[in-house]
């Protein structure tokens, strides 16, 4: 068996469809249909990844509460929201709660499998980092690769796993790093060059929400990006 994936979805037909497709890939799958059954199950043992709907029967925000609970238990646990709610505010809130991804139904099984595999790759890579190598610090920046946390001037910046991978690659490069190298650093087959540029915009915005004068991620036009605070 591969890793254990929990699916928290109140629609039995959809839940069964995703569960069977994942079992066909040799994943161990746990099927859950409400907030309470999910929390009761996770209080005993956490899975390796959770696929989570927002509305669970009459509990319109039950998925959010499950995500909040999981993030308090283990920030490194990949959580994927899979929901029909496509409002941008829903997506922002879900990611702020600690979800690794937010996908709007319908999503092809092929795409979902790629996302799952990419998140397991990220988790495996970070778990292989020695404790002594986990932290990287500058005068204002501190990141911990093991917990995938980032702090700027003492305040935490909530980055998605892809954003964290990109920032880490820029920091490790020292000199400028190409967009192609950043694509490879994410270890996600669905990331394209123009998507990297969008992620950089989001990363910069999150830093600027804390420090309006932030300008350390500099563009090297026609090539890529570089970390420089000078």
List keywords for this structure.
230 residues; alpha/beta; Rossmann fold; Arc Repressor Mutant, subunit A; 2 domains; 20% strand; elongated
Biggest sheet architecture: 5 strands, parallel
CATH architecture of the largest domain: 3-Layer(aba) Sandwich
Q: How much helix is in the residues?
A: 40-55%
Low-confidence stretches: 129-134
Task: Briefly note the structural class of the backbone.
Answer: alpha/beta
Q: Average pLDDT across residues?
A: 86
Number of helices: 8
- Adjacency order of strands in the biggest sheet: 2-1-3-4-5
Overall description:
By secondary structure, the protein is α/β, with parallel strands linked by helices. It has 2 domains: 4-127, Response regulator (Rossmann fold, 3-Layer(aba) Sandwich), CATH 3.40.50; 131-227, Winged helix-like DNA-binding domain superfamily/Winged helix DNA-binding domain (Arc Repressor Mutant, subunit A, Orthogonal Bundle). The chain has helices at residues 12-24, 35-44, 62-73, 88-96, 109-127, 161-173, 179-186, 193-210; strands at 4-8, 28-32, 49-52, 79-83, 101-104, 135-137, 141-144, 149-152, 155-157, 177-178, 217-220, 224-227. The strands form 3 sheets. A 5-stranded parallel sheet has the order 2-1-3-4-5, sandwiched between helices. A 4-stranded antiparallel sheet has the order 6-7-8-9, covered by helices on one side. Strands 10-12-11 form a 3-stranded antiparallel sheet. It is elongated. The N and C termini lie far apart (50 Å).
């Amino acid at each position: 068996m591969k890793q254990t994936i929990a699916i928290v979805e109140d629609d039995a037909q959809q839940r069964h469809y995703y569960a069977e497709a994942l079992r066909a890939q040799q994943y161990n799958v746990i099927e859950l249909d409400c907030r309470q059954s999910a929390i009761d199950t996770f209080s005993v043992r956490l899975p390796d990844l959770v696929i989570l709907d927002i509305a669970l029967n009459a509990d319109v925000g039950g998925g959010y509460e499950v995500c909040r609970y999981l993030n308090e238990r283990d920030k490194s646990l990949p959580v994927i929201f899979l929901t029909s709610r496509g409002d941008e505010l829903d997506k922002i809130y879900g990611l702020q709660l600690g979800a690794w991804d937010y996908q709007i139904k319908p999503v092809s099984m092929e795409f979902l499998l790629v996302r799952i595999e990419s998140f397991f790759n990220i988790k495996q890579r970070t778990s292989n980092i020695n404790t002594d190598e986990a932290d990287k610090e500058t005068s204002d920046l501190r990141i911990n690769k093991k917990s995938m946390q980032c702090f700027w001037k003492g305040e935490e910046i909530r980055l998605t796993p892809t954003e964290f991978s990109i920032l880490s690659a820029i920091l490790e490069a020292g000199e400028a790093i190409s967009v192609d190298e950043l694509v490879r650093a994410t270890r996600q087959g669905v990331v394209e060059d123009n998507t990297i540029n969008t992620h950089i915009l989001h990363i910069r915005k999150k830093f600027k929400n804390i420090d309006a004068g932030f300008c350390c991620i500099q563009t090297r036009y026609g090539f890529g990006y570089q970390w420089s605070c000078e």
